[in-house]
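Escalated from tier 1: flavin-adenine dinucleotide holo job.
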Amino acid sequence: MKPEIWVFIETRWGKIMAVSIELIGQARKLASQNYEVAAILTGDNLNPFLSPLIKAGADKIYVFAHPALTSYRSDLYPSLIAQLANKYQPAVILVGATTIGRDLAPAVAALLYTGCVADCCQLYFDAKGELLQIVPAFGIHAMATIVTPNHRPKIATVRPGVFPKPKDASCTGKIEYLSLSLPPERLIFQEAIRETISPSSLIEASVVVAGGSGIGCQEGWDMLQELAILLHGALGGTRPAADDGWIPESQMIGQSGQIIRPDLYIAVGISGDMQHMVGAQDAKVIVAINKDKRAPIFQQADYGITGDYKVVIPLMLNFIKNKEEDF
Ligand SMILES: Cc1cc2nc3c(=O)[nH]c(=O)nc-3n(C[C@H](O)[C@H](O)[C@H](O)COP(=O)(O)OP(=O)(O)OC[C@H]3O[C@@H](n4cnc5c(N)ncnc54)[C@H](O)[C@@H]3O)c2cc1C
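Tier 2 regenerated the structure:
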């Protein structure tokens, strides 16, 4: 039997999170002829998720369904995944570096007495079969390669958007339904409340309007929100915008926030520091609006508008509203 690379499949509100599909694609590339890719699917009503996972490249899906697992729980999921790992001994476990993944992965690592490498941006096996886990270090001024030769499984988290979504791999995956024991005192699940703005809306949006510390007032943020809504997009921002409470932390873009790949990224009142741009540089088209013509963002933008956003954004809003039937 080939050793397995596992991908923890994160589902929310009836959808597989994009990062889980991206990780199946990356696991498929890593697996080559030497490993099998297994998706770890836990939750409730899981049947609709099986076919997309096989299409993405899973050779096998371990399915464990239980109503108590409908939403992620720190008191159940890590011990469940650790139980499974003890039983099946995977070589590698990949987890999306989402809020949930960042809770799950280190907890599983601690239960298995192994390590967890957070926020990997590249993963590959070297000639000796050692997994190289590459992470940004010292801001993003250096890349560190981390190997964990003495521990197994290797556990790595990867942020959404780092790897592309796989093309249809058309695998013929096997499905293994598991029966495991859950602690009876933890089986009551009451309710999960959905956030109105979720990080996934930012990650999955094809248009993102983002603001920086140049916005500075409620009226300005209301304008950006309106622009995002008119373009059927999502609102994001920089670290200072999150620190000052204009956007939730989950909507922050950059090295310590979300990595996005929208078709259109409109950066308003953002200087374009490296730590921010690393999260947005893969946008197909970048439009920058900044009153300082020397702002570094103009070096990376496909289109730059030098001017005060308080003048520019109302013009854009008016233009779009007048053409609304086209949008
Ligand atoms: C380890 C580390 C991790 C970090 N991670 C992140 C991260 O994940 N994401 C992130 O964003 N940052 C991150 N940062 C912070 C980052 O280095 C920058 O400080 C930050 O991105 C700058 O945010 P900003 O562009 O909003 O602000 P500023 O750099 O202050 O830029 C504001 C811009 O607004 C323009 N402006 C002002 N008024 C107007 C106006 N009326 N109209 C138009 N333009 C105007 C100004 O000309 C200026 O260019 C990190 C820093 C460190 C050290």
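The first helix runs from residue 18 to 31.
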